[in-house]
Amino acid sequence: MVEIMKIRLITGTCYIAVLLVFYLLKIFVSDLFFDALIYAFALIGTFEMTRAMGERITRAEKIAVFAFAAVCLPACALAEEFAGLGVEAAAICFFALAVALLSLLVARHDETTPENLGVAFLSAVYPTLLLVLLSLANHIGAEETGRLAEFAFNSDLAILFIFVISPFADSLAYVFGRFLKGKFPKKMAPVVSPNKTVIGGIGGLVGGAVGAAILYFAYNAVAGSFAQMYLWLPVYLLIGLLAAAATEFGDLVESCIKRKVDIKDMGKLMPGHGGILDRIDGTQFAAVVVYLSFIIIHAIA
Fold first, then answer.
1. Distance of CA 293 to the CA centre of its chain
2. Pick from 58, 113, 137, 270: most CB atoms within 10 A?
3. Is residue 215 predicted with pLDDT exceeding 80?
4. For the ranges 24-28, 68-72, 152-156, which has the lowest average pLDDT?
């Protein structure tokens, strides 16, 4: 047990170091550097996902899904960086994928079924299409001026929200679940993930709020402003709670997928953690919440 925890700690530290390096490159050089990291997540995650699906997806469908992963993230990132058309680029890529997959019903009718087409679409959405939203979050408010610029409510903060809230939610969920499950044993999703408890889920929400509060004071001390704290601190806390809930939902989705295909981990790239998808399962869904929250804030602020 001690050896496993040591391996997890080393792997987790390396993961954080990689995130930090690419985040600094994003801040001081270009947003596209962090897109490169997201691109790696998408390619590796797609490999893990299609491998986990095994014979549930055909070789031709795997090629189509890999082509989508290879093209969609760069197209989205570059279109958003230089023209603000990342959403449109991603939509075109997904439409092309849909046409390609549906064409296999005709071109490879004997081996293609509605069931494995569904698996192929799932393998494209999870992780690539979810990570598209992470890439879009990486470009929010790059040219923002005025009120939001004063509070540095931009892509730098969005990425921090995603990669700070998720670990805090996971950590507090583990602590609450580990030490309070004796008093509060009710399971959150007993069929999908028997080890997750309701009290652990509450701990995750507490972790999200704590992480958001720490982020508010730390980030504004460096890049933002403490003016109108009565307004912006509650906004941070709300986003933290929503991102934490999304993180927990992402964990359950991953657990459900692994249970359906009867595997323990999606990969072995990160010893002690599993694969890339095992590490970013909740992060992907937190990215969706953070991106949509920032879009709404930019629309009304």
1. 15
2. 137
3. yes
4. 152-156
- Rounded to 10°, the helix 59-83/31-53 angle is 170
Taking CB atoms within 8 Å and a gap of at least 24, the contacts of 230-236 are 232/151, 235/297, 236/212
Residue in the structure block whose two tokens are 């929200």: 161
Q: Tens digits of per-residue pLDDT, 50-94?
A: 999 999 999 999 999 999 999 999 999 999 999 999 999 999 999
Residue 131 near residue 45 (C-beta atoms within 8 A): yes
Question: Do the beta carbons of residue 260 and residue 271 sit within 8 Å?
Answer: no
What's the pTM value of the predicted model, to 2 decimals?
0.93
